[in-house]
Design brief:
This protein is of the alpha+beta class. The chain has 2 domains: about 5-165, Trna Endonuclease, Chain: A, domain 1; about 170-265, Arc Repressor Mutant, subunit A. It is about 35% helix and about 20% strand. It contains 9 helices and 10 strands. It has helices spanning about 10-15, 60-70, 85-95, 140-155, 170-180, 190-205, 210-225, 230-240, 265, and strands at about 45, 55, 75-85, 100-105, 105, 110-120, 125-130, 160-165, 245, 260. The strands form 4 sheets. A 4-stranded mixed β-sheet has the order 3-6-7-8, sandwiched between helices. Strands 1-2 form a two-stranded antiparallel ribbon. The N and C termini lie far apart (about 50 Å).
């Protein structure tokens, strides 16, 4: 029998030759890009704050999972649409008695939606994540393919788990989406970082019970700047972790001044962007 790679379609072989599925961080090349897959819903291309690379996500649920991991300080790398070695997945399919994915008799390369590298106490561990809607888990064929995927990662010594919409922390995801566009929207030098930070912190303490939009509007009037300027500043500094709040439980729409805390480093004048 020919090697499995020779039985693949030419466009699949070409992806391997292009280095798809290889590399780490900003040098990683996803095996599948949004233009390679017929869309069954919304797809997303967006920059990662973990490594700065444009990532390719094939559903809204993949986007939610990605945002969650990308926001975590413990995550040091995220590789999406990661290919599984077809020689190994075919061997597994024969061993466990599950038909290998194929299209019109041609073997398909299986992929894992997200491969996450976590660093804890100086130790990096890799975790494979299959992102699936809960309703899809009622499909026997989906379960069979997931079983092949699970066996593959266990054979590699890595943990594997399924992420569904039931695992999405909705409030946290909404807050992350609110902040991320403002991560780099201001190039404040160190002096202006401290100045704007101090102005906002003073205003938040002056009006502790007020909603932040109202407080920032008062700052706009006081400083004679365009309406919305200081709310953008605040979102920028929140994204850069100069300020923080309980993002898991409090939606930004209802956020009040007394629910925001200031970074101890910034209070001491040690201004530094987290994502530079």
């Amino acid at each position: 029998m020919k090697p499995v790679v020779e039985l693949l379609k030419p466009n699949i072989i070409r992806r391997f030759k292009e280095g798809r599925g290889e590399g780490h961080g900003k040098y990683y090349k996803p095996f599948l890009k949004v233009q390679d897959v017929p869309s069954k819903g919304r797809v997303h291309r967006r920059p990662s704050i973990t490594h700065g690379r444009i990532v390719h996500l094939l559903s809204d649920l993949e986007l939610a999972a990605f945002l969650l991991f990308d926001w975590s300080e413990k995550v040091v790398d995220i590789r999406e649409q990661f290919p599984l070695d077809p020689e190994k997945t075919l061997e597994i399919s024969e061993r466990v008695g599950i038909k290998h994915p194929a299209y019109k008799g041609v073997f398909q390369v299986m992929t894992t939606d997200l491969l996450i590298d976590l660093e804890q106490e100086g130790i990096i561990t890799t975790h494979a994540v299959a992102v699936k809607y809960a309703k899809d888990l009622e499909n026997k064929r989906v379960i069979e393919k997931l079983e092949l995927e699970r066996n593959f990662w266990e054979s590699q010594g890595f943990s594997w788990f399924i992420f569904t919409e039931q695992e999405v922390p909705k409030t946290l995801i909404q807050n992350i989406k609110w902040l991320i566009p403002h991560l780099y929207n201001f190039e404040l030098d160190q002096q202006n970082q401290q100045l704007v930070f101090s102005e906002i912190w003073k205003a938040l303490q002056t009006y502790p019970e007020a909603k932040i939009a109202h407080v920032m509007s008062l700052l706009d009037e006081n400083k004679g700047v365009k309406r919305g300027t200081y709310l953008l500043y605040l979102r920028h500094l929140l994204a850069q972790q100069a300020f923080y709040w309980n993002m898991s439980n409090i939606n930004h729409r209802s956020l009040r001044s007394n629910q925001i805390q200031a970074s101890e480093h910034w209070l001491k004048g040690k201004t530094a962007y987290v994502y530079a």
